Amino acid sequence: MDKFLHDHPRKPRTQNEIDKVINRLKRIEGQVRGVQKMVEEDRYCMDILVQISAIQSALKNVGFAVTERHINHCVTDAIQQGEGKETIEELMGVLKQFSK
Q: Which CATH architecture fits 15-98?
């Protein structure tokens, strides 16, 4: 992680923001456990694949929410501080990983 410019957010998340992300991740964790159980029970492959697709979609949505917050707070602040180019490059590097 030392390739990133910041090891902490410029504007700390509110407790409400933290709670929303944590709750989403806990739901995803429950979905993953459900898929594990489906595999253990030797359930129909298509049913398992549908659940895996739902998990992937849920994770993408969490990623988009975190990205949106980052742009609205961290990137905006960096631009105002004259560090926009570096921060945008940092963000683009991470977004490229999402498309892999």
A: Up-down Bundle (1.20)
Q: How far apart are CA 9 and CA 95, in angstroms?
A: 17
pLDDT digits (tens, 9 = 90+) for 34-51: 999 999 999 999 999 999
Q: What's the CA gap between 86 and 56, in Å, rounded?
A: 29
Q: How many residues would you count in the chain?
A: 100
Residue ranges covered by each domain of the chain: 15-98
Integer Cα distance of 85 and 58 in angstroms: 30
pTM of the model: 0.81
The Cα 17–Cα 49 span in angstroms is: 31
- Residue 13, SS3 per DSSP: coil
pLDDT digits (tens, 9 = 90+) for 6-65: 555 567 889 999 999 999 999 999 999 999 999 999 999 999 999 999 999 999 999 999
